[in-house]
Amino acid sequence: MLVPSLITLVVMLSLVLLYIYVVAPRLNPMNRADGFLRQNLVDEAILEYKKILDNNPNDFVVHWKLAKILFDRGETDAGVLHLEEVLRIGSFNYEVEKVRVERALAQAYLAREDTLKAFRNYYELLKSFPGDHEALYHVSFILLGQDYFEQALRLLDRMVKAGESGFEVLFGAGIAAYQTQKYSEAAEYFRQALAADPESDIANLAMAFTLQRKRDYKAALTHARKVIDATADESAMMVARRLYGILCVQAKMPAEGVKSLEILLQSLRKGGMEEATAAVLYDLGFAALHADLTDLAYDYWNQLYQIDRGFRNIQFLTTQLRKEMDTSAQKPVGSVLEYTEEWENSAFPEDFLWGICGLRSEKRIDLLPILSAAGRAEPSRDEVPAQKGEGTSALAAEKLDDLYRLDMENFRIIANRAVGKLGFRVDEILPTYRESDGVDFLATNLATKEKTLVWVRRWKDIHISEIPLRNFAQSVNDMKAKQGLFVTTSQLTAAAEEAAKRLSKVKVIFPEEFGRLLAELI
Length: 522
Description:
The protein is an alpha/beta fold. It is built from 26 helices and 5 strands. It has a 5-stranded mixed beta sheet with strand order 1-2-3-4-5, with helices on both faces. Strand 1 and strand 2 form a beta hairpin. Helix 2 (29-38) runs antiparallel to helix 3. The protein starts with a helix and ends with a helix.
């Protein structure tokens, strides 16, 4: 009796084990799907995974597996839908980590050129993982491509400081610094980029333009010359030759500049490039004048006048130079050489380097709503509430409101132009304590040629105490500037007004005057 019972028990136990370890796994849809996948039976695996989702649409593991399969098959759109479901469900485990899902989804968005969604995903990823290299890289270059130079520079600089020494990151950081007029920083980034790729045409040109902005003309000549001597790119050659010619004039080597520009002129004429030919004829006139080759200057300008009488101020320059050359006539007031600085500053547009560097995106997207979600900086402790628009006209108050709504990049541009209208040329943008509220410039007073420190502040709903003015006066001295210009959107307290009267180097541009300037700019 005992033996039959034992036999029965063994048989039953065997059947149970058989079911648990053999039959049940085969009946389990997940196991079947995984098994098909191991056998490379992809279509069968997809069918089984979809059956699981029919019964449990929130199975995030299955969505993850399906997404990977579909991406491998090149079915990006279908794979994206499953990853979006994983994030909607919001459940994760050791196999399905949130960071991997967000990264894979961002990569998929980039693959199908949905840049805005890719940026949003990478930007969100940075909030949780600030050091994520892939997210840092894509966020910074998307920002840069969309003209958000300041934000891009902060992220690219973070990558450089973390040890990223690749050419692309270093060059991108240099361009971002150049576009924000931080020329000393730009020069250092370009130096490192050239250490990584010494023969790069665009990096050498970028360094030459940056050193020109820093008025280090002889060093700039070295980089322009390197492109001329080594490049096989005709476009790079033309830019380098023209820049070299202008730099020679600035470096007090005008005869060498004339030679470089004449070589370029011959090449342009052979290629039938009329617009570029006109620009170089204009350059040659100034270069020849500085080389005391007045007849040659007149000849080049007269050639330009014959082919394009409307080119800049060529009619005036030609007429004025002819009068200066006429020894029998009374000398005219002034000289064409007085227009040299205007020529130098306008030879290449401000955004020329940005236009040729290859980093600007052709597809424009609005990143501001995503960036704005980061919030604004809190007001400093010495700011006291004031009535909106107090002390300003309705027009000025309206324009100041427009200024508050600008993003940082556009605010910086408008502030730069406003400073220009006040009679100053911005030479460099300086680091600012809190960039959301203001921008600092090192400028030149065009009337006196004096070095000037400029602070532009868009503080809102405050009265400015005397402390910021005293800090500004100290900064003027620290920078060894002759004067300081404090441009503000806010009124001063009574104590600050008294302090301003005693600070001899400080001039305050009040909201009313600032608003009138903005009416011409916004």
